[in-house]
Every structure is written in C-alpha cells, then in structure tokens.
Amino acid sequence: MPDPKPGVRRVLVTGGGGQLGRAFAALLPGAVVLNREALDITDNSAVQRVFDEVRPEVVYNAAAYTAVDRAEAEPERARRVNADAVVSLATAARRHDALLVQFSSDYIFPGDAGPYTELDRTLPLSVYGRTKLQGEVAVRSSGGRYLIVRTSWVFGEGSNFVRRIVDAAARLDEVKVVDDQHGRPTYAPDLAEGVVALVEAGCTGVYNLVGGGEAVSWAGLAESAIVAAGFSCRVLPVTTEQYYADKKGPIAVRPANSELDCSKAREAGVCLRPWPQAVAEYVKELRLS
Ligand SMILES: NC(=O)c1ccc[n+]([C@@H]2O[C@H](COP(=O)([O-])OP(=O)(O)OC[C@H]3O[C@@H](n4cnc5c(N)ncnc54)[C@H](OP(=O)(O)O)[C@@H]3O)[C@@H](O)[C@H]2O)c1
Hints:
Elements: E1 11-14, H1 19-27, E2 32-34, H2 44-54, E3 58-61, H3 70-73, H4 75-95, E4 99-105, H5 127-140, E5 146-151, E6 154-155, H6 161-171, E7 174-178, E8 182-183, E9 186-187, H7 188-200, E10 205-208, E11 216-217, H8 218-229, E12 234-238, H9 240-244, H10 263-267, H11 275-288
Parallel strand pairs: 1-2, 1-3, 3-4, 4-5, 5-10, 6-9, 7-12
Antiparallel strand pairs: 8-11
Bound molecules: NADP nicotinamide-adenine-dinucleotide phosphate (NAP).
C-alpha cells in the first residue's frame, strides 16, 4: 500500500478505475487511489484492513455499480455495491473519524418536478436509483462525518454517452437520440475539483453538484458533442419510447427532468463551469488521443 506523501492530508479514493476515480487520481497525486482489483468495496474485511493501513482523513468513494439498465436484472449485485458496501465504508470511516464523501445520483428523483434541491422529496424510478438512495441512507445513519454529493450525466476518462456519440458520429450519417429526458452533463475532472473545494470549505451534509449551464436533453448533448468534434452526422431526436422500441433486455425507467439545483454549492463558493465548455474540451482531447 503506497504511503501518502508527508505533510499532505491522508486521502483514500475507492473505485479508482472509474471516470471519477481517475479524475481524483489526476487531481490528488498524494492520495492512495485503489481500483477494484486493489480494493473490492463489497469485501468488508478488506475495507476495514485498508482503512487501518491508510488511516485516511478523507475518503472519496468513487466506486459504484453504474449499469443502470443491467441493474434491473441484477438488483442484488447493484445493492451490494451501492448500499451494503457503503455501510462497510461508513463504519470504517467512523472508526477512524474520517470524512466519507459519497456520490449519489439525480436518478433518486422521479423527474416530474426538476430542478431538484437537496430538500426535495426523493422517489427513485429504477433499481439503480433505489440502491443509490440506500447508499445515502447508509451514510447518513452511520453516525460518522459525511458529505453526500449528488451529481448527474457524468463524462470523463472511460465509457460514457459523449464518447459513444462521438465514436458513432465518426462512422454514421445519422444517430437516433432520446430527446424527452433532460439533465445537466457533468465533466468528471470538474466534479472532482468542485468536490475537493467543498471538502476544503468544510461542507458536510448533502450537496448537489453538476455541470453549469442550462439543462439539456440527450439529443441536445449529442448535438453539442458532434459539433465540437467537427462531424456532420445528424441527430434524429426521438422519444424514449421510440428509442427503446426495438431494444432487447431490461430497460430502467429514467426521470424525464432530473436537473439538480446547485444553489447550495454556489453559496459555499463552488460552481462548475458551463457543461458546453467542458464537452468541447473533452471532445478535443478525445480527437487527439
Ligand atoms: N456516470 C454517471 O452518469 C453518473 C450519474 C450520476 C451519479 N453518478 C455517480 O457518480 C459516481 C462515480 O461514477 P462514475 O461515472 O465514475 O462511474 P464508473 O465510471 O462506472 O466507475 C465506477 C467504478 O467503480 C468500480 N466498482 C464497481 N464495483 C466495485 C467494487 N465492488 N469495488 C470497487 N470498485 C468497484 C467500477 O469498476 P468496474 O469497471 O471494474 O466495474 C468502476 O471503475 C458513482 O457513485 C455514480 O453512482 C454517476
């Protein structure tokens, strides 16, 4: 287990191989960043052992089961990672008096009354959303120090919607994209930076944090990404029902408008840049890589 650099706050990042985990790894070179192979968070004894070795002051739990549709078919697996494992992390964090930073999702909301504040009533429509909410409950009821950050539509290093659209646009003349679900895209490196700023500002409790700018549909986001990539591929906007008409396998119900209101984070001095700027930067990097 690598030791954190002397004089630097002892920070542990779980789920280091994911989009957000990689963003934390890049932002916090002194942190102990563990991917799934190094620490499976569903292994309670491994979690307790790692905490005893690292003795973290801050823990960013970037590990999660994020396959929204697949979760409908394997709810137990999703619950083990998104809820049960969070109980282990929260228990270990409490033992060490560490601040546990847990990530949650806009999919804990029903999507009929966005933008949602931190005080609005939750009502997940999917297995994924329910397990993320259970993860929140695990953290809140642990008795330890915590910061829950709710975010949405994350893109960064790894697999995500923006990358898939840019790949498709390089090959196709037209792509069909859902136009009746709205949210705020969030660039993982911006999110990581914003969350660290919330922690440094001493924020605890629940905060929404998503990309700045207007809410957009998946079709609108696709359009922005394709323009930024310089492709001429057309976006054909379709309804969710039309999009899934010929798809096989379980499909999760998603909120129609899951925009998160970030006024509370803004009052704490933390605001992410407008998502179109982040998309443009990300797409440029994709095209160069
Ligand atoms: N992506 C989004 O659009 C979105 C939206 C709202 C909220 N969020 C939340 O934001 C956080 C970060 O998401 P992300 O986009 O970075 O997700 P991601 O790219 O899917 O990364 C999740 C990481 O967790 C790892 N993981 C899964 N099970 C694990 C386990 N048992 N032990 C250790 N690691 C495990 C995954 O490894 P494998 O790849 O090997 O499974 C993956 O590397 C999550 O809490 C997510 O729920 C994400």
